[in-house]
Amino acid sequence: MIDQTSVDIIYATTEAWDTMLKECENAKISIYYEQYILTNDKIGRKFLELFLKKAKEGVTIHCVFDFSGSHSIYNSNIIESIREHGGIVNFYRPLSYIEALNPSNWFPRTHMKCMVIDQKLAFIGSACVGDHMSDWRDTTLKLSGPLLENIKDILEIEQLDDEPEESDLIKFHIHFPDAKENKIYTELLEKVRYSKKEIIISTPYLIPPEDFSRALIDAKNRGVDVTILTSLKSDSNIADYASEKKYHMHLEAGIKIWLYQPSVLHAKYVLIDGEWATVGSSNIDNLSLRQNRESNITIKNEKFVTIMKNQFMTDLEQAFLIDKDYVIRQPLYRKILCYFFIQFKNYL
User: Fold this and answer.
1) Share of the chain above pLDDT 70, in %
2) Are 321 and 258 in contact (CB under 8 A)?
3) CATH architecture of 6-155
4) Which of 137, 265, 266, 337 could lock onto 260 through a cystine, CB 3.0 to 4.6 A?
5) DSSP string, 169-226
6) Looking at residue 103, what is its pLDDT?
7) Which of 168 and 66 is assigned the larger pLDDT?
8) What beta strand segments (E) does 29-147 contain?
9) Which of 72-81, 140-149, 198-207, 210-219 has the lowest average pLDDT?
């Protein structure tokens, strides 16, 4: 319990899906769901079929899926069925084939993974929905309590200059692509710049904006212990190559980088000084921190951060620590690909 808000942490993707489906089955009033990737496969259809069932029961269904990430369901019959029974299903920034030819139209996307049920229960984190993601390492927060009122208020509008008043101990942030600032990134960058002891980062990709890299290196130079866990192999080969190009500058500064081996590490969180955390959909990359629509929870609570750190240490047991020689030993073709794809860092 954090300032009267109940927070449960779910580490396994399949457990997050099962819990969300169970709570949706119990919905009586409404289900709001914004998701980057929901695929037209067994688990994706399970969610959609449940939304259709609840729409038929009179539950308000309001879904926002990203056109790019969830393209496989864009023209599916079940989407039309949900709409026919009163549900609202929108696709964020749909593109025609002509529009898609211009890369400037590709972004921003909605990268959010946020569900609110009956205005009483919320799921916020990193888990997408697709059969091929069942063994991914994700982190999802299940929340209930006073914070839900602020989440509902923010989700109901498309833009805002000032978020509703909320606790200093637990906050919900959305980055709206047209906003004056990304409040998720602003708070994160400030916490890194004023960190004193420890920074722990979990991210699928390590392609940070230059000011974030500088802040991490400055922190390390003043004696802060900086540890990053990222995926040995993520869901994007291009992002992997660009990330690898960034390894050397961080390793040169003495920052520790671990590569997670068992599956795709998709969990996205930062822990600072044993007392502050941000958890949600934001990767440590330019798209999440500069462009996309994202949702994160920030929490100031030592007990919560300790629990998250304990899981981080468990994940490190299935990872290996790299050094500068690891980067140097990579084959020439890989170094060329790394150099090539880092040129597109603003789109990764």
Assistant:
1) 95
2) yes
3) 2-Layer Sandwich (3.30)
4) 265
5) SEEEEEE-TTSSS-HHHHHHHHHHHT--SEEEEE-S-EE--HHHHHHHHHHHHTT-EE
6) 76
7) 66
8) 30-35, 60-66, 88-92, 113-117, 121-125, 137-144
9) 140-149
Q: Which amino acid is at 97?
A: Y
User: What element of type H or E holds 227?
Assistant: strand 225-231
- Chain centre to alpha carbon of residue 266: 8
Orientation angle between helical segments 13-25 and 42-56, nearest 10 degrees? 20
Q: What is the CATH number of domain 170-347?
A: 3.30.870.10
Residue with tokens 């399949």: 14
For the purposes of burial, counting CB atoms within 10 Å of the CB of 144, is it exposed (0-12), middle (13-18) or buried (19 or more)?
A: middle
User: What is the pLDDT at residue 101?
Assistant: 82
Could you tell me whether strands 170-175 and 294-300 are parallel, antiparallel, or unpaired per DSSP bridges? antiparallel
Sign of the alpha-carbon dihedral angle for 184, 294, 150, 115: negative
Q: Do domains 6-155 and 170-347 have the same CATH topology?
A: yes
pLDDT digits (tens, 9 = 90+) for 259-312: 999 999 999 999 999 999 999 999 999 999 999 999 999 999 999 999 999 999
pTM (two decimals): 0.94
